[in-house]
Recover the amino acids of this structure.
């Protein structure tokens, strides 16, 4: 189903944002990439950070990675200081160490993730934190929890997922729908609403005059949907002053964006953009939710149960997400390059 949003009221940028990170499934690589991103060279340093999740999982991840950070449990976001020499963590205490096993999906892990995500959203809605990040979760654990059916259920209604890599930014009008449903989801209202939301959101983050490219649906952008839905939507948004072009042939638009012609590409379905982005650059990419009044991100990889506990997970995507959250919350755009 297409998610349509009218945008959200702006939250004023702050000099030293407070950013929370849900550690993801405790049995996966989430705790490890969080610890590494906060500890190793190139770690975020211009904001205050707090983890949400199992302190046992974080300690085990640190040990598996050969790291010895100072880990301090806190009772609320108000206790987070500006120290860069420690990892602050809020543990609700609802997940006993004996309830989960590293490398194995489980119902207890899934229930804990749902609780931690809801806590982060509540903190954000109450203004206790400026933004938050979700580390990798596991679809099997979530389903076993009996509380939600899939990862899609963790996406708030009225939001879209903007994928950002060092060379490309892409946001689709729909997520995980059947390819047979895609053509009917490409409508004037859906394309127009997303272009408007992207433009307004970028302004809020400090990116003025974003150049938006809209991908066509069909080869060479020469199908019925391109003519009857995408083109009119683009003209509607151009008429109100947005810098948008399209439909652009889907076999060309991503290369044009990587070469600097567009700041972001609006794609017509999930895989159309994801294939391009993951081919261009996978490590160091992150995903940003748009349509909220606060900053929320996640990483574009899964819980990787098969390597959990081995200390070998790459943390570039999590480090990128943390730095991106810092920049967006401070109104500096995408890492200060815009």
């Amino acid at each position: 189903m297409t998610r349509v949003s009218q945008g959200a009221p702006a939250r004023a940028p702050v000099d030293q944002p407070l950013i929370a990170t849900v550690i993801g499934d405790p049995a996966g690589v989430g705790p490890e990439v969080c610890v590494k991103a906060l500890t190793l060279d190139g770690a975020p340093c211009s904001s205050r950070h707090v983890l949400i999740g199992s302190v046992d999982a974080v300690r085990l991840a640190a040990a598996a990675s050969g790291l010895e950070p100072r880990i301090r449990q806190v009772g609320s976001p108000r206790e987070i200081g500006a120290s860069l020499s420690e990892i602050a963590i809020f543990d609700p205490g609802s997940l006993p160490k004996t309830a989960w096993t590293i490398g194995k999906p489980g119902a207890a892990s899934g229930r804990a993730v749902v609780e931690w995500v809801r806590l982060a959203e509540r903190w954000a809605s109450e203004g206790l934190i400026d933004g938050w990040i979700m580390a990798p979760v596991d679809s099997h654990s979530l389903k076993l929890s009996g509380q939600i059916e899939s990862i899609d259920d963790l996406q708030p209604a009225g939001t879209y997922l903007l994928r950002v890599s060092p060379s490309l930014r892409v946001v689709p009008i729909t997520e995980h729908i059947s390819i047979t449903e895609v053509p009917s989801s490409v409508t004037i209202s859906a394309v127009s609403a997303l272009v408007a939301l992207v433009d307004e959101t970028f302004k809020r983050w400090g990116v003025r005059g974003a150049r938006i490219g809209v991908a066509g649906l069909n080869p060479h952008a020469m199908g019925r949907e391109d003519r009857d839905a995408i083109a009119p939507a683009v003209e509607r948004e151009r008429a109100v002053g947005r810098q948008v072009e399209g439909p652009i042939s889907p076999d060309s638009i991503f290369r044009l964006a990587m070469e600097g012609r567009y700041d972001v590409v609006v794609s017509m379905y999930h895989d159309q953009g994801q294939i391009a982005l993951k081919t261009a650059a996978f490590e160091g990419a992150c995903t940003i939710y748009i349509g909220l009044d606060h900053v929320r991100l996640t990483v574009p990889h899964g819980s990787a149960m098969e390597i959990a506990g081995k200390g070998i997970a790459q943390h570039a995507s999590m480090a990128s997400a943390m730095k991106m959250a810092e920049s967006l919350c401070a109104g500096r755009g995408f890492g200060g390059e815009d």
Q: What stands out?
A: The radius of gyration is 20 Å. The CA atoms of residues 114 and 142 lie 8 Å apart. Residues 167-280 form a domain with the Isopropylmalate Dehydrogenase fold (CATH 3.40.718.10). Residues 1-7 have pLDDT under 50 and may be disordered.
